[in-house]
Specification:
- By secondary structure, the chain is of the alpha/beta class.
- Helix 2 runs parallel beside helix 5.
- The strands form two sheets. It has a five-stranded mixed β-sheet with strand order 5-4-3-6-7.
- A hairpin with a 5-residue loop joins strand 6 and strand 7.
- It has a single domain, classed as Glutaredoxin, CATH 3.40.30.
Length: 193
């Protein structure tokens, strides 16, 4: 009896008095170091995006959660691995409202990113592309979404942004566990709405 009573007692105690909540805080509450450290809470700056039909819109016109990913089109294998993880994220929210994906690339990319995205299984309306070039690319990647410049080969290449354009997390798309963490944290954030 005692062997059964102790685990049941612990379970009931935790059920009644325990608090099983996980909070996903903003990153960069005091700005991004070396960029805008005087900001109260960093917000991703507005940029121009293109959808699969070639229509342009502003980042701030998009509603809901966003997942940013920098795609180095000169590294096709790495880019395709990242796209597979983006499709996994999309599929995890298939029955609910999936996040929108903002794919960033430099202006010298030879392969059309929208074509690759649709080939890999990204939904047409969920994927936007922003072509960045030169100083603007480095500035946006470093001080806009807190990734280092493309030349540094930073492995963290997915950034979760909330509807108010605050950075919620930075994840390595080449590690399945990190993508799973992004999915989990996004589910937590969506459940608190």
């Amino acid at each position: 009896m005692l062997t059964l009573a102790i685990p049941v007692g612990i379970f009931l105690f935790l059920k009644i008095f325990g608090n099983n909540e996980y909070d996903v805080p903003y990153l960069f509450e005091t700005g991004i170091p070396g960029c805008n450290e005087t900001e109260k809470t960093h917000q991703v700056p507005d940029i121009t995006l293109k959808n699969a039909d070639g229509d342009t819109s502003a980042l701030y016109d998009l509603n809901g959660y966003l997942v940013f990913g920098y795609m180095d089109m000169s590294d096709r294998i790495s880019t395709e691995k990242k796209m597979v993880e983006l499709v996994r994220i999309q599929d995890a929210f298939f029955e609910t409202n999936p996040p929108k994906f903002v794919l960033l690339t430099d202006s010298t990319s030879q392969l059309p990113l929208q074509t690759l995205a649709s080939t890999m299984g990204m939904a047409k309306g969920n994927c936007m592309v922003a072509r960045l070039n030169g100083v603007r690319a480095d500035d946006f990647l470093t001080c806009g979404i807190a990734l280092t410049s493309p030349q540094d080969h930073q492995p963290h290449n997915l950034v979760l942004v909330d509807p108010a354009h605050h950075i919620m997390g930075i994840y390595n798309a080449l590690e399945v566990e990190k993508t799973d963490l992004l999915i989990l944290e996004l589910k937590i954030l969506l459940s608190k709405k």
